[in-house]
Design goal:
Isopropylmalate Dehydrogenase, alpha/beta, binds manganese (II) ion, 10-stranded mixed β-sheet, single chain, globular, binds 3-isopropylmalic acid, two-stranded antiparallel ribbon, 12 helices, 364 residues
Amino acid sequence: MHAHLVLLPGDGIGPEVTRAAVEVIKTAGSGFGLTFSFEEHKMGGCSYDAFGTPVTDETITACKNAHAVFLGAVGGYQWDSLPHHLKPEAALLRLRSELGLYTNIRPAKIYPALISSSSLKEEVLQGVDFVVLRELTGGIYFGKPREYSTDYGLNTMVYTRPEVERIARMAFTIARQRNLKVTSVDKANVLEVSQFWRNVVHEVHTEYSDVELHDMYVDNAAMQIVRNPRQFDVILTSNLFGDILSDIAGMITGSLGMLPSASLGSEHALYEPVHGSAPDIAGKNMANPLAAISSAAMLFTHTLKMQEAGYLIEEAVASVLAEGYRTADIHCEGCKLVTTTEMTGQVIRILNSLLVQKHVANVV
Ligand code: IPM
Ligand code: MN
């Protein structure tokens, strides 16, 4: 089998962590008899500098023609004052919209070795394993009208029935592969758009009566994620609420540097680490590549349907942490401080040995 991937390394630490992911993708692929071709494009601030736009039509077309897209990170101080439509962030929103990536999956999983580096207590974190499923192509991020002047600012939070139905189906489907529980998060006590969301989610739920469904207001959900995160399995929510809740959930793992994500549509897929471009440490070989590497694991699971490969990559990440290797962002006393490339090398070493074990097991 062969897969064609578009790489969008982007800005800041994006290129460094993308290189790490590519190495891991090649290693895991070769272990499973899979070959890859890679095509690299500029996106974000670097695209603005080169072409005057944060994403070109050529880049969008290339992404549409690939099996999947891997994105490093976009953004940086020097582009912050550009008008909205030229900011690096605008490129990301356009890409999500044009590729129809309506589902964003951000897992919040505990690595036992990292429990002590979280700001939450160990007893709160023990056994936490949930995903935030964020609607990604609708809601207030894309609603019209949208404008501002010196006198007022205006955005529109709107959801249509098909938009809510498809993300709700996705949530129940994913819950069936997990622990059969969906918590739909909204603000139905205040917002009409949320009441509509809640009604539609409940209608869809009638097709999935084996899955437990709970509703929760977003303010309460923010509190519950830090109070008792074990209660969650799949958190289903809208674009804006998901943006906020997934950052809160991110801290559960100890560092945003650990969080992977998948953005999926019916035809296309994009994988990216959740952390930003971290311009202050860019080019210093200091960045944590593990979120990018875990995003590569999600690529194997979701796009290539090679769950075992995804699982082995995840296991390699967990083992490297258990052996005490740490980049600066998650460094702890008595741990081995390593660079981006060293960390990647350690993951590859363990992944290779896991692949050999798998091969031996298959032969025997
Ligand atoms: C994220 C980011 C983006 C978002 C920004 C960079 C547009 O915060 O992926 O969570 O708000 O969706
Ligand atoms: Mn965000």
